């Protein structure tokens, strides 16, 4: 008998749609995804990770006013492969203090939030369901708890899309509608235009906006950033950003210019960062805008799960010989 084929059966999702999606990821989106993954910011515009992922980030910010500020940022995205095929799109997402469940305004804009008390998002736990996947777009639903006192709740629906703009540009956007116990109804829009410069550099223009029942009108921000890999273990970025609100006391709340150096430390899952910055915030107490210098130190540890093993199908029993071919005295 020929050897039995023990290779796993093809998944129902291995269709022309998935082949096209994989081609876009490998050929067109690869430079963008590689740099995004290296900096590990988990921006809302990024594609979901294919495997479970845990990131623990410690940050110490030293500035010229007051005492140094410390923050612990934990993010876990856990797939649930033990469920049946219908529910395997579920994902448990746990986010720590430095990010916000609805595209934290400062964190999602700059990739590294200032550590002041007004910019830290509440820790939360979200059960996320991928409702629809297309070649260029994705829809997910989420609901969960805000881990603060008193404990809050939230729900949201989010649409994300990535579209090639000609041969050299990639456009990405994320539109979300949500409800939270602290901000009530709201909506947010994030968008970016990215230009890969070969396989080791990237130029990005990004913008974000948010409107809730308790926000200062439309809270908005924009950033221009350049990212470059300096080898397999090191990358740098240089960026300038502006942030404000339509109902704020000033047209622009804050200008900021910063540089960021990121490198792995002894292992591919331990990273450190240095981020010097200069900012020009506006404060009513000072009667206007002033210049402020700061530097942030970060130490990050990552853990990533492996794909669940695929069990081969059960081996079928070998058929018996017909009666006229059985040896004399053989059992039927």
Order of helices and strands: HHEEEHEEEEEEEEEEEE
- The number of domains is 1
> Rg to the nearest angstrom?
25 Å
> What does the overall shape look like?
globular
CATH architecture: Beta Barrel
Q: What is the CATH topology? A: Porin
Nearest-integer average pLDDT:
78
> Biggest sheet, in brief?
14 strands, antiparallel, barrel
Describe the strand arrangement of the main beta sheet, using strand numbers. 1-2-3-4-5-6-7-8-9-10-11-12-13-15
Characterise this structure.
Residues 304-332 are annotated as: Disordered. With 332 residues, the chain is mainly beta. The chain has one domain (16-306): monomeric porin ompg (Porin, Beta Barrel), CATH 2.40.160.40. Helix content is 9%, strand content 50%. The protein has 3 helices and 15 strands. It has helices spanning 16-28, 30-39, 105-110, and strands at 53-63, 69-79, 90-95, 124-133, 137-146, 152-165, 169-180, 184-196, 201-212, 219-229, 234-245, 254-265, 267-283, 288-289, 292-304. A hairpin with a 5-residue loop joins strand 5 (137-146) and strand 6 (152-165). Helix 1 (16-28) packs across helix 2 (30-39). The longest helix is centred in the N-terminal third of the chain and has 13 residues, at 16-28. Residues 1-13 and 98-120 have low confidence and may be disordered.
Task: Reconstruct the topology from this structure.
Elements: H1 16-28, H2 30-39, E1 53-63, E2 69-79, E3 90-95, H3 105-110, E4 124-133, E5 137-146, E6 152-165, E7 169-180, E8 184-196, E9 201-212, E10 219-229, E11 234-245, E12 254-265, E13 267-283, E14 288-289, E15 292-304
Helix pairs in contact: 1-2
């Amino acid at each position: 008998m020929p050897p039995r084929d023990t290779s796993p059966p093809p998944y129902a999702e291995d269709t022309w749609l998935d082949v096209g999606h994989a081609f876009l990821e490998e050929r067109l989106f690869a430079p963008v995804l590689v740099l995004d993954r290296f900096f590990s910011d988990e921006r809302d515009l990024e594609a979901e990770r294919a495997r479970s992922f845990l990131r623990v980030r410690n940050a110490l910010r030293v500035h010229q006013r007051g005492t140094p500020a410390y923050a612990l940022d934990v993010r876990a995205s856990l797939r649930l492969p033990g469920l049946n095929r219908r529910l395997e799109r579920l994902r448990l997402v746990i986010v720590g203090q430095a990010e916000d469940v609805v595209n934290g305004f400062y964190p999602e804009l700059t990739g590294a939030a200032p550590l002041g008390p007004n910019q830290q998002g509440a820790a939360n736990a979200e059960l996320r369901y991928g409702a629809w996947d297309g070649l260029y777009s994705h829809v997910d639903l989420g609901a969960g708890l805000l881990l603060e006192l008193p404990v809050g709740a939230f729900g949201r629906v989010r649409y994300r899309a990535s579209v090639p703009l000609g041969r050299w540009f990639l456009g990405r956007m994320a539109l979300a509608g949500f409800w939270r116990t602290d901000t009530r109804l709201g909506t947010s829009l994030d968008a970016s235009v990215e230009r890969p410069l070969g396989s080791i550099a990237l130029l990005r223009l990004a913008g974000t906006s948010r409107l809730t029942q308790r926000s200062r009108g439309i809270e908005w921000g924009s950033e221009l950033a350049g990212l470059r890999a300096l080898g397999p273990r090191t990358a740098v970025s240089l960026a300038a950003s502006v942030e404000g609100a339509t109902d704020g006391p000033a047209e622009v709340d804050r200008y900021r210019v910063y540089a960021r150096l990121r490198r792995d430390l002894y292992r591919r899952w331990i990273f450190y960062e240095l981020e010097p910055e200069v900012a020009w915030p506006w404060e009513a107490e000072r009667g206007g805008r002033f210049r402020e210098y700061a530097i942030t130190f970060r130490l990050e540890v990552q853990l990533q799960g492996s794909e669940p093993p695929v069990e081969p199908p059960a081996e079928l029993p070998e058929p018996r010989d017909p009666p006229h071919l059985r040896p004399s005295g053989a059992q039927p």
